[in-house]
Amino acid sequence: MLLDFHRLGGLKWVLVGIGLFVAAFLLLPILFTVALSFGSSQWLVFPPPSWTLRWYEELFADSRWIDSTLTSLQCAVLVTILSVSLGLLASFGLVRGSFPGREAIRAMFLMPMIMPVIVVAVALYAFFLRLGLGGTLFGFVLAHTVIALPLAITSICNALERFDKSIEDAAVLCGANPWEAKLRITLPAIREGLFGAAVFAFLTSWDEVVIAIFMASPTLQTLPVHIWGTLRQDLTPVVAAASTLLLLFTLALMLVAAWFRGRTK
Questions:
Q1: What are the domain boundaries of the chain?
Q2: Is the dihedral of CA 135, 141, 144, 145 positive or negative?
Q3: Of the residues 87, 93, 107, 238, which has the maximum number of CB atoms within 10 A of its CB?
Q4: Please, are residues 117 and 210 in contact by the beta-carbon 8 Å criterion?
């Protein structure tokens, strides 16, 4: 039974207050991190005694931070391309295909998304170590694709299931071959699902830390791994500056996704 907020009266404001409290509980730690990145103290002290941009200057002057950021960006882009490509092919088979065990295969594709990430990390580390892929960019891309692919498949499958296949069939009847109909009719129609798959795959790789810790080497680290390692060694506000930039980039990407979705609608 749905709640009618117009009849709840005072209870409506209680629910609104609870929602605002939960939002503040989730967002305040992030705002504290942003404030700490501008503090003048060499330790993570809140409230900051004064304000400075020193930690951002040190961040951009340190080649290790730049290298780890570029590694994260390169890995995330490759994971996005690979996840969307494989996810598109798998989604067509799962949505359009008719074969025994289809639902079981679909469930297997989703297993990395529901399994504890530490279990996936240990399994990938042991497997890639035997293949000699530990500490390599190729190993990073494959490992992140394992956990990004289920999200891509989910997004694309949902878009394909909402698409009316009779439109594609009509294009074929009008003279287009099946591949041309898919490229010119189906793919533009499910572009929102493809874009969502790309965003989820990129953010999954960009923010992932557990698997990346297992796959990292002294010479190849992603940005979240470098942040984690710096936190274990020294509580410098440079970490807060790096975390703030990481947060701003993620927020900007989500705003672009929201804008694209609104424009599509």
A1: 5-55, 56-264
A2: negative
A3: 87
A4: yes
Q: What are the tens digits of pLDDT across the range 18-75?
A: 888 898 888 888 888 888 888 877 777 777 778 888 888 888 888 888 998 899 999 9
Q: For 56-264, which CATH superfamily applies?
A: MetI-like (1.10.3720.10)
Q: What is the DSSP string of the chain?
A: ----HHHHTHHHHHHHHHHHHHHHHHHHHHHHHHHHTTBSSSS--SS-SSB-SHHHHHHHH-HHHHHHHHHHHHHHHHHHHHHHHHHHHHHHHHHH---TTHHHHHHHHHHHHHS-HHHHHHHHHHHHHHHT-TTSHHHHHHHHHHHHHHHHHHHHHHHHHHS-HHHHHHHHHTT--HHHHIIIIIHHHTHHHHHHHHHHHHHHHHH--HHHHHH-BTTB--HHHHHHHHHHH---HHHHHHHHHHHHHHHHHHHHHHHHHHHH-
- Res 83: pLDDT: 94
Q: What is the pTM of this model?
A: 0.82
